[in-house]
UniProtKB/TrEMBL annotation:
The protein's name in its UniProt record: Gfo/Idh/MocA family oxidoreductase
GO molecular function, one term: nucleotide binding
Biological source species: Aerococcus kribbianus
Database matches in Gene3D superfamilies: Dihydrodipicolinate Reductase, domain 2, NAD(P)-binding Rossmann-like Domain
Pfam families assigned: GFO_IDH_MocA, GFO_IDH_MocA_C3
Regions crossing the membrane: none
InterPro entries: Gfo/Idh/MocA-like_OxRdtase_N, Gfo/Idh/MocA_Oxidoreductase, GFO_IDH_MocA-like_dom, NAD(P)-bd_dom_sf
Chain ranges of the Gfo/Idh/MocA-like oxidoreductase N-terminal domain: 2-116
Domain GFO/IDH/MocA-like oxidoreductase as annotated: residue spans: 131-253
Amino acid sequence: MLKVGIIGLGTISYIHHLAIEATGLAEIVAVCDINPATQNDYPDLPFYTDMEEMLDQENLDVVHICLPHYLHVPAAKTCIDHGVHVYLEKPLAMSYQEGRELADYVESHDSKVAVSFQNRYNKTSQELHHRLKKLVSEDNGRVLMVKGIVTWFRPESYYEAEPWRGRWDQAGGGTIANQSIHTLDLMQWFTGQELVASKGKLIQLTDYAIEVEDTATADFTFTNDVHGIYYATNAYQENSTVLVEVVTNEGRYVISDNALYYYADKYGQGHLICQDDIFPSSKSYYGMGHKLAIQALYEAIINNNEDYISVADALPSMMMIDLLKQSSQSNQKVNAKELL
């Protein structure tokens, strides 16, 4: 059994806890948080308020980093320096350049670092990705365009409970860095193309006392003239279903309400292909991907392979976010080569 530690005992850490146990490959042996009160959640485990102390005292194989965004890369590097593998919550970093620096750091060390883009492991995502790869590689088909829509709700109390969530220098963004980053990741993953340029806008629709945007829209251009349209907001009144559409030269696929549909023509009836397994809690929109994403890293450690979502895999999402930020500030289309 792999020995696991968790750093950061906020909301998302409980999802990690359940997923770690569900893999059957690891056990949580230590936890860490700067707030001593969180020890009450793990009364039977060694508890630390200092990450370095935990890494020095415990013989850990893997650490799950569930910290505020601005601490992701520094904490990951510290774990790597201690020879520990890392499962890193999204976003990868605060910027594309910081993510690139972490990718280089991983390359020069032996630790594996996986990034939590667990939605890639949903049944709908896996099936669609498989079909698109087959279409392009075997049938000489083409992906033409992709669309992502996220209409969710976050009350002002969400930001008041953890003030870092509303700050640019600590969160790196609102919905783009926290809620809808998974949709950005899926959009570029499904296209199979590299990002070329983006034009978009970040705005606030709510009257909350926050710095970051709660709403974002963008047009993305990928290689091979693939286009993407993206809209996300935290200003809706509920967490509505995420919609992802991929249009090919042979038809279109739609993921909605945790199901994948295929439409052979523009006005025809959709054909249900598969449905996601649903996470049994109020966070049902998370899906079951956390277990599979975490399990992939654990199996890669045990079997010494690279079959997990790596830092390099997560870099395109950071590029999409950075281009969107720059475009919103300049009100102009921004080319990806400007970040490289």
